[in-house]
Write the structure tokens for this entry.
Amino acid sequence: MEEIHEVFDCADSINVYNGGAKTAYSSGGKEYSKILACWNDMINGAHDMPAFGVSLDRYTKEEMKKGLWVEFDFKKVLECNGMPFEKLLVSVEKGAQGFNLIRYNSDVGYDGRCFYLDLIGKNMGNFYDLLLNL
């Protein structure tokens, strides 16, 4: 894949974590389609930029026990900008106008460099509300 924007439609499942509780939505399902449509609408026109930092597996797993998170699980290794991943994890914050896409690889977990998307004048509000009301 050349662009990070192109990968999300390839997700085998989408996992939503709310306060540490995980709900999985499989490709082809009604909720999966709603999540993906809202996500794609949100990132339409977004710019990918250098990430603000790196992820540490232990810290990320601890943070996933709090707040709202969404994870796109591809069930295979994909690569963008020379960075491989099997999953992409995002902390969903209602007013956020940009966010890190935390890469997961089975050999190192959530350790490593991230991608970053700037929503360019948009925020995560609609996506946040959708995830809370599934």
In short: The longest strand covers residues 68-80. The longest helix spans residues 30-43.
